[in-house]
Write a structure and sequence with these properties.
50% of the residues lie in helices and 15% in strands. It is of the alpha+beta class. It folds into two domains: 285 residues, no CATH class; 101 residues, Calycin beta-barrel core domain (Lipocalin, Beta Barrel), CATH 2.40.128. The longest helix is centred in the middle third of the chain and has 29 residues. It is elongated.
C-alpha cells in the first residue's frame, strides 16, 4: 500500500522563487480585487485602503506610461477598465520586485511548507466564496434574466457579442441551473481541505469555460476569470506528481498528505474552526439563500400593458403615415416590458425608459419626458395621444400574440424532432 506523500524538507530554487512571487501576488490581488465577496464589510474596508490607488493609477498612466487618454476610475460595470489593467500591472511589478528582494535576503530557508499551506487556505477560500456567489445567482437566474421584449426585437447583427452571450444564457432556465450548480460545486469543494484538489480540477474546466466566454464574447471580466483559473492551477500544483502519475503514467499515486497545520494552543484551533463555520454559513446564507428568497426577475410581476403591439395607424399632425420601409418617423411595433422599445418602419429599434401612470392614464417616456395619454379602446387595443418629437401624434396599437411574434420563446423543448427547426 503506498505511503502518504510527505512535505519536502528541501525546496528547489525554482520552487522557492515561484512561491515568493505567488505569495505576494495572490495576497495583493485578494486585497485589491475583493470582487464584492463578504460584502458589505469587504467593500467598506477596501474603499478605505484602496483610496490612494484611485489617484496613483491615473498618475502612473499619465506620467510613467504616457497613455494617450486619462485613466478614468468611475464604476462602469466593467472589470477590464484601464484602471483595472494598471492595478494588475502594479501587482505584477510589485510581486516581481518583492520576489527579487525576498530571494536576495532569504538564502537559508529550506522550504516554505507552513506558509504554502496557509496561502493555499486563503486562495481556496477566495475561489470558494467567488464561485458560490456566481453559482448562486445563476441557479436563481439573477445574473442572466430571460431576454426582454426589447432584446428580442433587436436584429441579431445589431447585438454586441456580450449581448448575444447574455441572451444565449438568459434563454434557458435549465442551462442556468447546470452552469450554476457546476460553479456551486467548485465553491463547496474548495471549502474543505480533503476535496480541494477535486475542486481545483473541476474549477479549471468550469472557470476555464467562463474565461473562454469572456474572451470570445468580449465580456469585461477577463482579468478576474483568468486569475481564478491561475488560482485553481496553483492549488492543483501541490498534487502535481500524484496527478501526473495517475492520469499520464499509469502509476500508483500515493495518498496526499491532508494533515492540517495546527497551533499548539487548543483555543486557537477551536477559534479557527468557529470562524470557518461562521464564514461558510454567512456565504451560503448571503449568496445562495438570499438569492432564492428574492427570486429571479423572470418570476416577478409584469408591468402594466406588458406585450408586443402592432401599430395599426400612426397620425403625425394631420397626416396619416403609411407603413413605408423608408419612413424613419412612423412606428411599426411597440414592445412594452420594463422599458418601451420602439421599432420604426425602417427597421431600426430604440429603447426608452418608461413609466406607466395608471392614475392619470399616461405613458411617460423618460428620455425626453414625452407624455402620451392612453385610452383603452378594446381589451387588446390602445390609443395613444400626445406630443412625440415636437409633433402631435395619435397612435393606435393592437396587441399581438407573443407566440406569433417570437418563435424563440414559443418553440419550447422537444424530445422527438422529425425535422430540424433551425431558423
Amino acid at each position: 500500500m503506498p505511503t502518504t506523500t510527505i512535505e519536502p524538507a528541501n525546496w528547489t530554487t525554482a520552487q522557492k522563487v515561484a512561491f515568493r512571487f505567488f505569495m505576494i501576488f495572490f495576497t495583493l490581488y485578494i486585497l485589491m480585487e475583493t470582487n464584492g465577496i463578504l460584502s458589505p464589510v469587504s467593500d467598506i474596508l477596501s474603499g478605505i485602503y484602496m483610496a490612494p490607488f484611485v489617484h496613483l493609477m491615473p498618475w502612473i498612466g499619465k506620467n510613467i506610461l504616457h497613455l494617450a487618454q486619462p485613466v478614468a476610475v468611475e464604476q462602469t460595470g466593467s472589470g477590464d477598465t484601464m484602471y483595472d489593467y494598471l492595478l494588475m500591472l502594479f501587482m505584477v511589478v510589485t510581486s516581481v520586485t518583492g520576489m527579487l528582494v525576498w530571494t536576495a535576503i532569504d538564502r537559508k530557508t529550506k522550504n516554505y511548507n507552513k506558509l504554502y499551506y496557509w496561502l493555499c487556505v486563503i486562495v481556496r477560500y477566495y475561489v470558494a466564496i467567488t464561485m458560490v456567489t456566481y453559482g448562486g445567482i445563476k441557479v436563481v437566474k439573477l445574473q442572466f434574466p430571460a431576454p426582454t421584449l426589447g432584446r428580442m426585437m433587436q436584429p441579431l447583427g445589431q447585438m454586441s457579442p456580450m449581448g448575444l452571450a447574455w441572451t444565449y444564457m438568459g434563454y434557458s432556465k435549465a442551462f442556468n441551473w447546470v452552469t450554476g450548480l457546476a460553479e456551486l460545486s467548485v465553491g463547496l469543494l474548495m471549502f474543505f481541505r480533503r476535496t480541494t484538489t477535486l475542486g481545483a480540477i473541476l474549477g479549471v474546466f468550469v472557470i476555464g469555460n467562463v474565461m473562454a466566454v469572456n474572451y470570445c464574447f468580449d465580456v469585461p471580466v477577463k482579468l478576474m476569470s483568468t486569475t481564478l483559473v491561475v488560482m485553481c492551477v496553483f492549488l492543483m500544483f501541490r498534487d502535481y506528481h500524484r496527478l501526473v502519475n495517475f492520469f499520464f503514467k499509469n502509476q500508483a499515486a500515493a495518498p496526499s498528505n491532508l494533515s492540517p497545520h495546527r497551533f499548539n494552543a487548543k483555543w486557537k484551533n477551536i477559534t479557527l474552526l468557529v470562524i470557518k463555520c461562521l464564514l461558510v454559513f454567512y456565504v451560503l446564507y448571503n449568496d445562495v439563500f438570499m438569492a432564492f428568497y428574492y427570486g429571479s426577475p423572470d418570476d416577478g410581476k409584469k408591468p402594466p400593458f406588458y406585450g408586443v403591439y402592432k401599430v395599426e395607424t400612426f397620425i403625425s399632425g394631420k397626416d396619416t403615415l403609411p407603413p413605408l420601409t423608408t419612413d424613419t418617423t412612423r412606428w411599426n411595433i411597440l414592445a412594452i416590458d420594463y422599458n418601451a422599445n420602439v421599432k420604426l418602419c425602417s427597421d431600426s429599434t430604440t429603447g426608452y425608459l418608461l413609466n406607466v401612470d395608471t392614475v392619470h392614464k399616461h405613458f411617460v417616456i423618460s428620455r425626453h419626458k414625452y407624455i402620451l395619454r392612453y385610452k383603452i379602446l378594446k381589451p387588446d387595443t390602445i390609443m395613444l395621444q400626445g406630443t412625440w418629437k415636437k409633433d402631435s401624434v395619435q397612435i393606435k396599437l393592437v396587441k399581438q400574440a407573443m407566440g406569433n411574434s417570437f418563435p424563440l420563446m414559443s418553440r419550447g423543448f422537444h424530445w422527438v424532432t422529425q425535422q430540424a427547426y433551425n431558423r
